[in-house]
Amino acid sequence: MKSLKQLGMAGLVLGMLTMAAAASAAPVNINKADAKTLAKNINGIGPAKAQAIVKYRRENGAFKAVHDLTKVKGIGEKLIVKNKDDLQLSDAAVRKAGN
Fold first, then answer.
1. Beta 87-88 vs 28-29: how paired, if at all?
2. Element (DSSP H or E) covering residue 86
3. Does pLDDT of 5 surpass 80?
4. What three-state secondary structure class fits 91?
């Protein structure tokens, strides 16, 4: 009985963590956002990768497609797929998503 109760608690905690992670993401304009905003709103991006995005953008210009994020070292296809609904190229798209 005790192990069943522990298993239930573990499932509850895992579910809450998953929901918190999903809730923290929000639409973000990858061509305008600063590193702090990128790290906060893109699941799987921490401060170092967020700074790498800003540096890449500064050196190469605006991203023409969301998939261009894969040109930044350390960012792969899986991250793009995981965040596809929140990665935007313009503020208009961010406003529309946020209504």
1. parallel
2. none
3. no
4. helix
Q: Is it the case that residue 23 has pLDDT exceeding 60?
A: no
Q: For position 22, what pLDDT does the model report?
A: 47
Question: In 25-90, which ranges are continuous DSSP H helix?
Answer: 35-41, 47-60, 77-82
In the structure encoding, which two tokens stand for residue 10, read together?
Answer: 């573990």
Residues 89 and 30: beta-carbon distance below 8 Å:
yes
Q: By three-state DSSP, how is residue 74 classified?
A: coil
Task: Give the Cβ contact number of residue 2 at 10 Å.
Answer: 6
The first and second tokens of residue 64, run together, are 């023409």
Query: 32: which DSSP letter?
Result: T
pLDDT of the residue at 60? 97
- DSSP H or E stretch at residue 2: helix 2-24
Residue type, 82: K
Q: Which of 15, 58, 19 is nearest to 35 (CA)?
A: 58
